[in-house]
Amino acid sequence: MTQAFPLDGLAAPDEAALPLHCVTPKGLEALRARLAPEAAAFLDASGFAGLAQEVRLLPGPGGVAGAVLGLGEAAPTPWSFGGLPQALPAGSAWRLAEGAHAAEAALGWCLGAYRYTRFKPAARIPARLVPPAGAERALHAAAAICRARDLINTPPNLMGPAELAQAARDLAAAHGARCTVIEGAALEEGFPALAAVGQASARPPRVVLLEWGTPEAPLVALCGKGVCFDTGGLDLKPPSSMLRMKKDMGGAAIVLGVAELVMRLRLPVRLLVLVGAVENAVAGNAFRPLDVLRTRAGLTVEVGNTDAEGRLVLADLLACAAEREPALLIDCATLTGAARAALGPDLPALFTPDDALAAALLSAGEAASDPAWRLPLHNGYDPWLDSTVADMNNVSPRPMAGAIIGALFLRRFVPAGMRWAHVDTYAWNDHARPGRPEGGEAQALRAVTGAIESLFDGIPGPGR
């Protein structure tokens, strides 16, 4: 197995490091008793109250002798620690003084230290943390998240279908997985709706199939929307709406991140990851409104809007995955602006007809500080997809319930009774917050991985 994604913000295990004390308001008195009298007096004089994100440097003979982080009253999350790489002195090294909250601290620290630096160096060297004992899983998660962030943040001229496919190949090679890339005539025949979406681009579409695990393990299929740039097609987006469209491959980046974490944790499943790597461009051969497209499932789709292309990509991927009869099928996509209007940027919309699967995903998300919110697959809206010339339209003529309509469209390509969930995600941080710098974000990565782990817990797996 090759090296994990290189993480910023980590110090060597044997490096001399200053103590970092983490304390709630209720624990402040006990901390004062443990500190040197001068440090305790300074903490009192500075008015430190243990509030969330409150940081104090403690003076000592050599300058800085340590630091104290306030955790507030709520249970610590990774975001409790995410501001420290930028708040503490640049390049300084730290260790957790009390050893508590190791996983949250390691994950939050690494995510807070992350910056996309391919073309511009970071404004400052982050403070570094000596990896605490018990944080191995958190570091695996941080590596998968940061790799996904890098994929999403890469400019679209450097992250086209070929580059996204190569990223999947590299991931497969790193973990002994098998990777197949389908293109050309084989793609046009096997994934006709996806091919139609990408036919106007000078960068031809590709479908990636990554497979890992042993034949006897239960099959988990993950499908990711990999639209490397979305102009909207002939239903052209306004310029302002294109400014973040390099993130329209965020679903693909997230499922590749889930795959990386599943493989690193060696969960007892067999993986099938399908990525539809495509660009929705404008040219004389672009697919048009009112075109009728054939899909892999045999269903026909009238194109009501060329900017609803992601569901056409996923339709073929879901049909392909369903042919393998997986025990679990999950797709991730930056599918609709309607989901953001309903839930804002931080909460992916979760759709599934399976209450137990919804509970597993929501519970795993809450436990990992990676939440989602379930929205209904309301059958009453299903006729809104009717078409007079094809089996269905790809959009509804009504300007309402757009996220639900997108999910209902996808449901038509999943066999009844198959355990399936659809995650409609934003995959982006609009502004910087502790642990979440502005830019690409792997929303739902930890939730999906945690749900997979809980659903297949107790099954013997590789390396277990």
From TrEMBL:
Which Gene Ontology cellular component annotation is one that this UniProt entry carries?
cytoplasm
Q: Which UniProt keywords apply?
A: Aminopeptidase, Hydrolase, Manganese, Protease
Q: Name one GO molecular function term.
A: manganese ion binding
Where's the Cytosol aminopeptidase domain? 305-312
- Database matches in PROSITE patterns: CYTOSOL_AP (PS00631)
Going by the entry's taxonomy, the superkingdom of the source organism is recorded as Bacteria
GO process annotations (BP):
proteolysis
Which InterPro entries would you find in this protein's record? Answer: Leucine_aapep/pepB, Macro_dom-like, Peptidase_M17_C, Peptidase_M17_N_1
Into which family does the record put it? Belongs to the peptidase M17 family.
Q: What is this protein called?
A: Leucyl aminopeptidase family protein
